[in-house]
Design brief:
The structure is a single chain. It contains 14 helices and 12 strands. The protein is of the alpha/beta class. The two termini are 25 Å apart. Helix 3 packs parallel to helix 4, helix 4 crosses helix 6 and helix 7 crosses helix 8. The strands form 4 sheets. The chain has a 6-stranded parallel β-sheet. A two-stranded antiparallel sheet has the order 1-2. The chain has a two-stranded parallel sheet with strand order 9-10. A hairpin with a 5-residue loop joins strand 1 and strand 2.
């Protein structure tokens, strides 16, 4: 099979994995003629990092052959799809060729499980090692790790990759047993725990050696060069970074009957136990020759969007996962964002005085982001904030004003709170009333084209 055909098959097979944003890693470049690639810059953009940068990654599988038969996976062993497999050298060559053409900034590499977890992981690590050590590649590398791979292979992977990830797949252990009985939640969590331990150990080693835990690094693996100066006191080399962009994971939403409350509970546990950099949510997409245990259609894509918004509230706005979905349905409202829904459900907390309220309460006002709250706090140290100041700060006044008190403005009646019966989107159909207008049913968009 020629390389173009392999690329077509294995790039298409990788499109269901959403966890490929490149953020939080070291800054590296090839200025001065050293190496090739960088973790910055812009090419043909395919995804956005959390800090807003547009990034592009070569996103492929090493192979879509797999010995597992996960019902939700298009590459499962019983699936009737075209199969292909790259060699290590082919992935290296593709990565370098695409980078030289300025079409990518890095590599996202995953794989089906072939022969054994260790055999597969060893092949994946060899790609990253060859890029770093042979070609001095300084671009971004994200490796999908295999849960049952040996600890030594995980250590090697973290030495060469910017980010490592292990997909938890289903929000609950029961869901994983139902749809992927060959996979083990305990094994996944053990690997996540090992990765966290290695990341923490590397951070502590660098701190004790006097190195920074952030900023730029020199060399393909983050090691500082050793320079011998006659008469100078010896200086220990900084320990190498271990996966400086941390670890991430992904959950499939809508393949089983897990509600949003259980999904957010699982995410909160992953953030707390393993210090995940990100949890990604991927709305289930119907696949060819699907098993009968799977739903016939995808969930509304807005549900995935609401979960990301709720995830943001947990990570940056001080919300507990239990209070985000605090009604009897277990589902996030689809007609309004989670923060707005929380505010409507707690009228006793509003209106908030922008000149008096503490930061943690300001963060709960609909329409106020972290940056907006920081600007407000800085402004009110100088003088009292007035209503016209909000307009100069370019805040979304229609969202903010019904929930706040500020000099020159006091809200009238409480903001209308549509009920689920009349105004909330139905979780099954995605329809609802938004501001008196019937909203159409959101549809699952294709990931490419």
């Amino acid at each position: 099979m020629d390389l173009d055909r392999k690329l077509a098959i294995l790039a298409d097979a990788a499109k269901y994995d959403a966890s490929c944003a490149s953020s939080g890693t070291d800054r590296r470049d090839s200025v001065g003629g050293a190496g090739i690639g960088s973790t910055e810059g812009m090419g043909i953009c395919h995804s956005y990092a959390p800090d807003g940068r547009c990034i592009s990654l070569l996103k492929i599988l090493l192979t879509n052959h797999c010995q597992y038969d996960c019902l939700y996976c298009v590459n499962r062993s019983s699936s009737n799809v075209a199969r292909a497999r790259f060699s290590v050298e082919e992935v290296v060559r593709l990565t370098l060729d695409f980078y030289r053409r300025n079409t990518i900034e890095g590599l996202f590499l995953s794989s089906g499980i072939i022969k054994s977890p260790d055999h597969t992981m060893e092949q994946v690590v060899r790609v990253a090692q060859t890029l770093r050590e042979v070609h001095d590649f300084r671009g971004y590398i994200h490796l999908k790790t295999i849960p049952d791979a040996s600890d030594e292979l995980l250590r090697r992977a973290g030495r060469y990759a910017d980010r490592l990830s292990i997909n938890v797949e289903m929000p609950t252990e029961a869901g994983l047993k139902q749809l992927a009985p060959e996979k083990d939640t305990s094994a996944i969590h053990r690997s996540m725990g090992r990765l966290r331990l290695h990341i923490d150990e590397a951070r502590e080693a660098r701190a004790s050696a006097g190195g920074s835990t952030g900023g730029s690094t020199v060399g393909s693996t983050g090691e500082a060069p050793i320079r011998v100066i006659p008469g100078a006191a010896p200086r220990p080399a900084r320990p190498p970074r271990f996966a400086p962009a941390g670890q991430s994971t992904q959950m499939i939403v809508g393949a089983d009957d897990s509600d949003d409350r259980s999904i957010l509970r699982s995410s909160a546990a992953l953030y707390g136990r393993f210090r995940m950099r990100r949890v990604y949510y991927s709305a289930f997409s119907p696949i060819p020759d699907a098993a009968r245990a799977l739903p016939l259609k995808a969930p509304p894509l807005v549900r995935e969007h609401r979960l990301y918004q709720a995830d943001w509230l947990m990570r940056f706005y001080g919300f507990d996962h239990e209070e985000i979905v605090d009604d009897g349905t277990g589902l996030l409202r689809l007609d309004v964002d989670p923060k707005h829904a929380w505010a409507l459900a707690h009228p006793e907390r509003f209106p908030v005085d922008l000149n008096q309220a503490p930061r943690e309460l300001l963060l709960r006002v609909p329409g106020l982001g972290v940056g907006s709250v920081d600007r407000l706090i800085a402004a009110r140290r100088l003088r009292r904030v007035r209503a016209e100041d909000l307009r100069h700060m370019k805040l979304p006044l229609r969202r903010v004003l019904p929930f706040v008190i500020v000099d020159g403005h006091r809200p009238g009646a409480a903001p209308p709170a549509p009920t689920r019966a009349s105004g909330a989107a139905d979780a099954g159909t995605g329809t609802g009333v938004v501001g008196g207008v019937v909203a159409g049913a959101p549809t699952q968009l294709g990931l490419f084209g």
